[in-house]
Structures are given as C-alpha cells and as structure tokens.
C-alpha cells in the first residue's frame, strides 16, 4: 500500500507530520524535540529517521493527545529515555488495556506546562468530548493549538461520534476557543484558525438542536436521518456520507 507522508512547517520551529489520514505536530528546541502523537510504529519509525536527518537534537518528550490507539501507537520507537506526558485518564486506559506502548511518566488532571529550550507547551484538559481524555496542546510562541478528534476544520466530526459526551463536547470546543492562538492544527485534515473551532462548535450546536427537536416531537432515529439537513454546513467535508451517522451519534448522546 502506498503511504502519504509529509513534514511541513506550521510556524517557526513547530512542524506538522502526516501519515495517511493522521496528523501530529512536533516542536524543535535547542534542548530537544517534543513529539506529539506517534500515530503508529510505522509512522514513528519514519518520523524518527527524518528527525535525525534534519535536526541535531534528540527527541526528549512525547505527548499523547488522548488514548486512542490509531493516534498514540509506536512511541517505543523513540527510546526509553524519552519522557512521556499524557492526561491521567489516558494513562489509566493504556494500563487497563495492557497496551505495549510507553506509559506516561508525567500525568496531569487539569493543566500542565512543559518548558524546554526557551519554549513552552501548555497542556489543557477541556473536559470530556470525543471520549473522556482529549487534551488541547498550546504552543504559545508559535500561536498554534493542536487538537485531535474533537475539532476538525471544514469537515464533519467522524462518523457516529464514537464514545462522545454531550453537552461536554460543545463546552470543550468553547474552552479551546478561549485560548490565545491563531493556527488550529487538527489530528485529521487541513490546518485552520480559531474561526474554524467556532464553526465546528456551531455545527455541533445545530446538530444538537435539530436532533433534540426531533426527539421532542417523538420522531425515531430513522425519521430524523431522513429529514434533518444542516444547510449552513453542507460545504463541510463528508457532509453527505457522515450526517446520518452524526445524527445517530447525537441521538445516542442525548438519549443515553
Ligand atoms: Zn480518537
């Protein structure tokens, strides 16, 4: 299978790397490189080779965005000396599922700031959203926030919204909107701005309102899937394919 891989500069010493449909970021400082989601063993092996070709500092830190294996597998590639950082619930999930990936040595509940080589990475827990342990990673000097799976740019949220939580998810997006950044780097799809976070939240609010209205009128899921359209967002990617699944996900969140 052919792979789509790329490393692109976001702003200053902050870069984005792509492995097929997955994206992460890394920050190069004079004291070491901070890598975020390693994605997979294959992706991390490639990234590690690229980093050693391009930069003369080692990878010193690895930060997990949330517990999902399609984003945080493969961190062992960076060696045993790398400090791994994640939310306390991310660590719990990795241990509970006996996963053979590095377990975070540094965890936090609400907020953690990593300082390295004249840079800061501020980690925030915005509450439950897509799952219960997604965090926002702020790179203040680079005016960028990295968020995975709970905000995307000009694209519908993924399929049936997985193990999402409402209204927490909307509140988590509002939390990110309050952060001081210009560039939004999501774990899937293109880069955006703060306005894209706001748009994503407005999509969720419109979806919630439409499904709540259907429920209040006694409609079942199939009826809603056949009748709800969110015209303002029809230019979002995957609109036709995923809207019925998004309706199902929202229905489940509002009725369970
Ligand atoms: Zn996920």
Structure description:
This protein has about 260 residues and is of the alpha/beta class. The protein is about 35% helix and about 25% strand. The strands form two sheets. It has a seven-stranded mixed sheet. A five-stranded mixed sheet has the order 8-9-10-11-12, covered by helices on one side. Zinc ion binds next to loops. Zinc ion binds near residues 66, 68, 130 and 149.
Summary tags:
single chain, 256 residues, alpha/beta, seven-stranded mixed β-sheet, five-stranded mixed β-sheet, 12 strands, elongated, binds zinc ion
Topology:
Elements: E1 5-11, E2 14-19, E3 22-29, E4 32-35, H1 41-54, E5 59-63, H2 69-72, E6 83-87, H3 88-96, E7 106-108, E8 111-116, E9 119-124, E10 136-139, E11 144-147, H4 168-177, E12 183-186, H5 194-216, H6 221-227, H7 239-255
Parallel strand pairs: 4-5, 5-6, 6-7, 11-12
Antiparallel strand pairs: 1-2, 2-3, 3-4, 8-9, 9-10, 10-11
Helix pairs in contact: 4-5, 5-7, 6-7
Zinc ion binds next to loops.
């Amino acid at each position: 299978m052919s792979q789509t891989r790329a490393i692109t500069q976001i702003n200053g010493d902050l870069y984005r790397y792509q492995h097929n449909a997955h994206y992460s970021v890394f920050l190069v400082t004079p004291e070491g490189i901070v890598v975020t989601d390693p994605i997979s063993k294959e992706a991390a092996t490639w990234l590690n080779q690229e980093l050693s070709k391009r930069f003369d500092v080692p990878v010193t830190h690895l930060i997990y965005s949330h517990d999902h294996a399609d984003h945080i597998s493969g961190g062992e590639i960076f060696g045993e000396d790398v400090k791994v950082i994640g939310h306390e619930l991310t660590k719990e999930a990795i241990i509970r599922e006996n996963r053979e990936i590095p377990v975070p040595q540094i965890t936090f509940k609400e907020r953690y700031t990593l300082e390295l080589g004249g840079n800061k990475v501020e980690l925030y827990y915005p509450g439950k959203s897509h799952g219960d342990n997604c965090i926002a990673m702020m790179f203040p000097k680079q005016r960028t926030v990295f968020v995975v799976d709970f905000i995307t740019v000009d694209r519908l949220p993924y399929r049936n919204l997985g193990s999402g939580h409402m209204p927490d998810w909307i509140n988590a997006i509002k939390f990110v909107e309050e952060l001081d950044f210009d560039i939004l780097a999501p774990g899937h799809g293109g880069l955006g701005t703060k306005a894209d976070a706001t748009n994503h939240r407005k999509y969720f609010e419109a979806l919630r309102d439409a499904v709540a209205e259907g429920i209040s009128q006694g409609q079942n899921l199939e009826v809603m899937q056949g009748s709800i359209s969110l015209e303002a967002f029809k230019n979002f990617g995957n609109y036709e394919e995923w809207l019925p699944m998004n309706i199902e996900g929202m229905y489940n969140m509002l009725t369970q």
